[in-house]
Design brief:
Layout lengths: L3 H9 L7 H25 L2 H4 L4 E5 L5 E2 L3 E8 L2 E2 L1 E2 L24 E5 L7 E5 L11 E7 L18 H22 L4 H25 L15
Parallel strand pairs: 5-6
Antiparallel strand pairs: 1-8, 2-7, 3-4, 3-8, 6-7
Helix pairs in contact: 1-4, 2-4, 4-5
Length: 227
C-alpha cells in the first residue's frame, strides 16, 4: 500500500519543492495535518468501531490509570459496566460515603481527575483490587495517534477509518494552499478553483464519516493510485 503522503497527493496533487529544506518543511506540515485529522476522526467514531482496536488495561488498586492522550471507550469493574460521574461527585461515590450515589460491585462508577503533575487519571469506584477477576478494573481505550507521512498504515487505529484520516489531512493541505494563494500570491482566480476542489474533498469526508457511523449504506473504500 502507498504511504500516507502518496495517498494525500493522489487527492490534492504533488507539491513542487526545490530544496531539502522545503521537503522537510512540507513533510512536517503533513505530519501535523495527519495528527490533527486522525484525532478528529477518532473523536467521531462510535464505540463499536473503536473497541475493535482498543487496548485493555487492568487496574488492581486505588491508584487510578493515567489517561493522558487516551480516548476512553469502555470501563468495567469485573463484568459490570462502569458509568462516568462528574468529578464534583467524587466524595459521594467513595465507599461508605452513605450517599445515595455510593456505588456497589454491580453498579460501579468512574471519574476523571487532574493531577498536580502529568495528565488526568481515571479512578474506578469501588476501588479495584487484585483479589480476583471480579474485583479488577478494566479500561478499554485507544491512544490518540501521531502518524507520519511515511507510514503506510496508522498503528492501533481502526483500519476502516484510515481513509477518513487521509481525506481529512487532504482538506487541511488544500486549505493551506488556498490561504497562500489568497494572502501570499493574491491569485484569486486560482484560489476559486482550489475552493471548488476543497468542497469536493469536504463532501467526500462527510460521506466517509457518515459511513463509519452507520448513517450511510455500505460503501467500498475508494482505491487510490499507487496502492
Amino acid at each position: 500500500m502507498a504511504n500516507l503522503k502518496t495517498q494525500i497527493e493522489n487527492l490534492v496533487g504533488t507539491k513542487a519543492v526545490t530544496s531539502n529544506a522545503e521537503v522537510s518543511s512540507y513533510n512536517a506540515m503533513l505530519n501535523n495535518f495527519l495528527k490533527q485529522s486522525s484525532r478528529a476522526v477518532l473523536d467521531l467514531l462510535p464505540d463499536d468501531v473503536l473497541i475493535r482496536d482498543s487496548i485493555k488495561t487492568t487496574i488492581e488498586n486505588n491508584g487510578g490509570l493515567d489517561i493522558t492522550d487516551k480516548k476512553i471507550v469502555k470501563v468495567l469493574r469485573g463484568n459490570y459496566g462502569s458509568v462516568e460521574v462528574p468529578l464534583e461527585f467524587k466524595a459521594q461515590v467513595q465507599t461508605s460515603s452513605g450517599s445515595l450515589m455510593e456505588p456497589s460491585v454491580r453498579t460501579p462508577v468512574y471519574y476523571i481527575e487532574g493531577q498536580d503533575s502529568g495528565g488526568g487519571k481515571l479512578f474506578i469506584k469501588p476501588d479495584p483490587s487484585n483479589a480476583n477477576a471480579e474485583s479488577k478494573g478494566y479500561v478499554y481505550h485507544n491512544s490518540f495517534p501521531s502518524p507520519s507521512w511515511a507510514d503506510t498504515s496508522i498503528s492501533n487505529f481502526p483500519d476502516l477509518a484510515e481513509y477518513a484520516v487521509v481525506i481529512g489531512a487532504s482538506m487541511r493541505v488544500l486549505q493551506h494552499k488556498i490561504n497562500k494563494m489568497i494572502h501570499d500570491e493574491e491569485d484569486i482566480e486560482l484560489s476559486s478553483v482550489a475552493q471548488q476542489e476543497l468542497a469536493t474533498i469536504q463532501s467526500m469526508y462527510q460521506d466517509e464519516i457518515a459511513r463509519l457511523n452507520g448513517q450511510a449504506g455500505i460503501m467500498a473504500q475508494p482505491v487510490q493510485e499507487g496502492q
